[in-house]
Design brief:
alpha+beta; 241 residues; 2 domains; Beta-Lactamase; Arc Repressor Mutant, subunit A
């Protein structure tokens, strides 16, 4: 079963040359696949934008997203250091002193996490971000799952960077910038939808993604329509079932 799920994951992550490739959905799919394949409790993805600043562009849960944002706001922590050094970092036992990043450790413990694995998203000398895996226990992943996680980070990085082969760096910068802009729209749409349907943020996000998949639309397009109030709410509500 694990082998089948792993093969399906790699096929999915490698399929980035399609004409309607959606970077935002691709990165959220990567986060979800990390959870389902590796057995971690949450995953988050940081990517560097065209100005050289790290941004949260994908997360499997709001807990992970908020913790990543906390780290970026304080400009310190294992995930940021992983990107800066290009080396993997593992931290366990956030409640045990001494802590290298006490503010991050306190926030991670408050979010219910006991371990974080930060893996660089890099190809040769170019690092574009970090893939971060969170677990509620204080146990490190086994060597096999760490190798799989590194392979997932590598293949996702190759998928994003292969655009560079087609039309050099401008296309990659455009795709990454589109992913960052889409993230803002998606966050706004989640709030709007949660308010309209009186549901929580997680369910609102699931509804957006399911509607996009059912109708073969980009997630960012669905988010735009929700914000503008032009989406068919009947069809959108049906996506929840």
């Amino acid at each position: 079963m694990f082998v089948e799920k792993l093969a399906e994951t790699f096929v999915e992550l490698a399929d980035t040359l399609v004409a309607d490739f959606d970077p935002a959905e691709f990165l959220h799919r990567l986060a979800d696949r990390c959870v389902s394949t590796l057995g971690v409790d949450a995953a988050g993805i940081l990517l560097v934008d065209h100005l050289g600043e790290l941004q949260v562009v994908g997360a499997s849960s709001d807990r992970a997203r908020l913790l990543e944002l906390f780290e970026l706001q304080h400009r310190q922590g294992p995930c940021m250091e992983c990107y800066l050094t290009g080396a993997p970092i593992t931290v366990t036992g956030f409640t045990e002193p001494p802590q290298r990043w006490p503010e991050f450790s306190a926030a991670a413990a408050a979010a219910g996490f006991g371990t974080v694995h930060a893996l660089p998203m890099r190809l040769r000398e170019q690092t574009v971000g970090a893939l971060n895996l969170f677990a509620v226990t204080e146990n490190e992943l086994g060597e096999t799952r760490i190798r799989v996680a590194r392979a997932m980070a590598d293949i996702a990085t190759i998928g994003l960077l292969q655009a560079q082969v087609i039309s050099h760096r401008e296309l990659l910068a455009g795709q990454l910038q589109h992913a960052l802009q889409s993230r803002v729209l998606i966050e706004q749409a989640k709030g709007v939808l949660a308010e309209r349907l009186q549901i929580d943020i997680g369910e609102a996000f699931h509804t957006l993604r399911q509607h996009a998949r059912n109708n073969r639309l980009h997630l960012s397009k669905v988010a735009e329509d929700v914000i503008a109030g032009t989406i068919d709410m009947t069809a959108l509500t049906a996506s929840r079932s």
